[in-house]
Amino acid sequence: MGGAVSAGEDNDDLIDNLKDAQYIRTDEVEKAFRAIDRADYYLDDYKEIAYKDLAWKHGNIHLSAPCIYSEVMEALELYPGLSFLNLGSGTGYLSTMVGLLLGPFGVNHGVEIHPEVIEYAKQKLEQFVRTSDSFDKFDFCEPSFVAGNCLEISLETSAYDRVYCGAGVQKEHEEYMKNLLKVGGILVMPLEEKLTKITRTGPTTWETRKILAVSFAPLVQPNQTENGKRRPLQMPTPLVHSLQDLSRIAIRRRIKTIMKPPSFCRYTGIFKYPPRYKRKRLRRRRMETIVFLDKEVFASRISNPFDDNNNYDDVEEDSREEEEQVASETKSDPPVNVFRERILSLPLPDPLKCYLLYYREK
Questions:
Q1: Phi and psi at residue 131, in whole multiples of 5°?
Q2: DSSP alpha helices (H): ranges in the chain?
Q3: From 64, 70, 83, 95, active-site residue
Q4: Contact of 205 with 188, CB cutoff 8 Å
Q5: Where would I find the H helices in 113-195?
Q6: Are 146 and 111 in contact (CB under 8 A)?
Q7: How far apart are alpha carbons 131 and 340 in whole angstroms?
Q8: Does residue 337 lie in a domain region?
Q9: How many distinct structural domains can be found in the chain?
């Protein structure tokens, strides 16, 4: 399944095509897709096809088409603090994108039947954390991968807010998948050749919506044992943050708020600076205009702030108009920003120019 959008020259170009085709519809999903380069999850010999809207498989390593992942991300309706279960987590590409949206207090679990694929996913995750600039821009919920068959998950496992299955689900396993959800949770899975979204609206009620036609390999059935009993698959215990972790999260958020660089729009070529703190402009204007007032006018205003009819409000309004008129008459044209012109002329990268201009203006 794939080929719904044209191939891109790089990751951003691929995302632009997915947006134009309405596979990506929300800002949050777009940010997650742009933060992770799809080619990083390919083997080196296959990176040239990474930006095509096609599925890729090499041995047990598999990636779905970008249009499928974008529909899945949109259907899951992710936000910080949710618990997520990825059945057939594969390379970890989807789990890592989901982790960018769950935040540090979410839960991000993956189940994969092939141990060598889990090792591959862990290598790619380590590479992302160590080398990607996007890691510092998000409050990341790091995925945990478990080796085993997703049809053998222990019944004692806590239910999840969001569940995705990356393999075709037979009708006989539909109820099993539904019971992995909390009330209010969302399950996305290929069911009867259709990518299906199921929302659990109550203890025994669900809403079902078909998204698009897909073709997935079916789930691998559990092996039969001699005594007929299987060892249930235990999922990781949700992480309880220590005081040190909570402090680190709070400090990182504060630093990112203060040091947030201006964003660059590659379409308009304009840097968008973060909003500054609001100031009491009225108070500052009065302080500035007092400098231009005649001493006699100022003295009379202090000694007799009321008019002949003891109407203070009228006097205050007239005074404000007078101050604004004096200030407008004395205001001169702003000087040329020599510093800005000099910075823009230097042979520096655009992000560095942004930082220099931003902190100079502050």
A1: -115, -20
A2: 11-20, 27-35, 66-76, 93-102, 115-131, 174-178, 243-258, 281-290, 295-303, 312-330, 338-345, 350-361
A3: 64
A4: no
A5: 115-131, 174-178
A6: yes
A7: 32
A8: yes
A9: 2
Q: b/e for 143-168, b at 16 or more Cβ within 10 A?
A: bbbbebbbbebeeeeeebbbbbbbbb
Inter-CA distances, 321 with 30, 315, 318, 326, Å: 49, 10, 5, 9
The owner of tokens 């990176």 is 47
Distance CA 171, CA 191 (A): 7
Of 138, 174, 194, give the one whose Cα is nearest residue 1: 194
For residues 236 and 328, membership in a common domain is answered with no
Asked if 247 is an active-site residue, the reply is: no
Name the pTM for this structure.
Answer: 0.69
Domain containing 272 equals: 263-361
H helices within 58-114, ranges in order?
Answer: 66-76, 93-102
Write out pLDDT tens, residues 73-95. Answer: 999 999 999 999 999 999 999 99
On whether both 168 and 230 belong to a single domain, the answer is yes
In sequence order, the β-bridge partners of residue 196 are: 189, 210
Residue at which a domain ends, from 207, 234, 258:
258
Beta bridge partners of 191: 169, 194
Tell me: the pLDDT tens digits for 160-204?
999 999 999 999 999 999 999 999 999 999 999 999 999 999 999
Q: How many residues does the chain have?
A: 362
Residue 170 contacts residue 92 (beta carbons within 8 Å): no
